[in-house]
Write a structure and sequence with these properties.
Elements: E1 6-12, H1 17-27, E2 33-40, H2 46-53, E3 58-60, H3 63-66, H4 69-83, E4 87-90, H5 99-104, E5 109-113, H6 128-136, E6 141-148, E7 158-165, H7 172-195, E8 199-201, E9 211-213, H8 215-222, E10 227-229
Parallel strand pairs: 1-2, 1-4, 2-3, 4-5
Antiparallel strand pairs: 5-6, 6-7, 7-10, 8-9
Bound molecules: 5-O-phosphono-beta-D-ribofuranosylamine.
5-O-phosphono-beta-D-ribofuranosylamine binds at residues 12, 14-18, 91-92, 112-114, 180, 183.
Length: 230
Amino acid sequence: MTPAPFRFAALASGGGSNFQALLDRIASGELKARAAFLACNNSGAGALEKAKGAGVPAFHVSAKTEGSEEGVARRLLALLDEHKPDLLVLAGYMKKVPDAVLERMRNRVVNIHPALLPEFGGAGMYGHHVHEAVVRAGKTRSGMTIHMVNENYDEGQILVQRAVDLRPGADAAEIAARVLKLEHDTYWRVVQGFAEGRIVPTDSRDPSRAVTLSSEWIAAMRGLPGTIVP
Ligand code: GRF
């Protein structure tokens, strides 16, 4: 019997280029997983169209559609109950994930951040603000972080960080483009790591031990350009 394919759900708020990059790697056969559903808090999110284009069930779930933040949590839980994804992938989701969802998906929620955490994370650090802060700080490199999500944003266990050296005088737009390219080349590898059982969720409540990483996966990440963690 062939094992059931690994399935992830995604939450997004924006254009959805990271979500599209995952769909592209599924289409190319490199990522052996399926997208179970996508939910967006914003009806204008480009990610919704991308999901529909790929035949992935897509939903607009917001306090407006559900009546309240509690309603959002209930709807997301209902979608998880119905589709039973193995992993929840945050792909540019600008809202806080309800605690009830984090509890249900404990140690199975990943996020991508366009900087080298812990620097340039936390309140107000999203989108172009991140890259502008990197420029203001005079950094000579930036990069991306993929990390586990717990109740404290941007503080979960780091799975992988990759960096690029910045050209003197590089502006925020240039840094954003270079970091996004790294994001697209990396997120699918993390999803694949879960799908292949090389990243394994634990049942620990200690955020630093949300998952275990196999030595093969660590070695594969270290073989990529710019990897600084693991
Ligand atoms: C990415 O830069 C990601 O790191 C951050 O939000 C952005 C989403 O971009 N969390 P996109 O919607 O995937 O194009």
